[in-house]
Amino acid sequence: MSDEDLNTRPESIDEGWHPEDRNRGVSAGKVVNWLVLVLVLVAVGYLAYGAAEAFFPRWWAEQVGLQVMGNYNRGMILGLGVGAVFTFVPLLLLAQARRRFFSWTWRVIIALLAIAFAMPNWLTIAVAVGTSHAAEDGRITMTADAPGFRNGSAIGAAVGLVLGLIVVGTSMRLSQQRKRVRELRSRVSELENRTDSDGAGTDASDQQVPEKAPEAD
């Protein structure tokens, strides 16, 4: 075998594996892991939803019935309070996600907390419009033991929504005004600094007046 064959042999050998293949394998494995995780979460969420749908509407109606005890006025007042509070506060909490200093992870966490805090309203909606046996039993229980609660909850949710939008809108408007004030202050300070620098340059030019030459005899 000649020297030329020995020099050209390593370039012609293909071992069948390259670093690029390893990187592609790792990325493909990550994609598969994410797909498996998403499928598992979807399956767990579906099972949790089925269990919640079969249990919580009936349980929520029983708890509300124990508080109202068949009194219509008490049901209306309790419904107004629950609907307003658990709509107003989650809306304010959800509005905090617009803050720029929050990362996307914290924004998702805030949104989930807002949804969780509004759970009493979600349960009332599940009882009012649900199609499961637990929802039907909950409607019967609320009609008998908590009259007026569903109507009061709907009115309270509307009131809480309006108040929340007013507060959030006012807060956003004040924030924009404060931002404009800061911008105007920065512009004013910049103009003042520029004026001071121009004035200092003018004073320096006045002080450097050439002396008058002596007259010849």
Proportion in helices: over 70%
The fraction of residues assigned to DSSP E strands is under 5%
Count of discrete alpha- or pi-helical segments spanning 4 or more residues: 7
Main sheet overview: none
Assembly of the depicted chains: single chain
Rg measurement, Å:
36 Å
Structural class: mainly alpha
- The chain-level mean pLDDT equals 80
Q: Uncertain runs with pLDDT below 50, 5 residues or more?
A: 10-15, 22-26
What is the overall shape? flat
User: What is the N-to-C order of secondary-structure elements (H for helix, E for strand)?
Assistant: HHHHHHH
Cα(first) to Cα(last) distance is: 109 Å
**Number of separate strands:** 0
Keywords:
mainly alpha; 7 helices; 217 residues
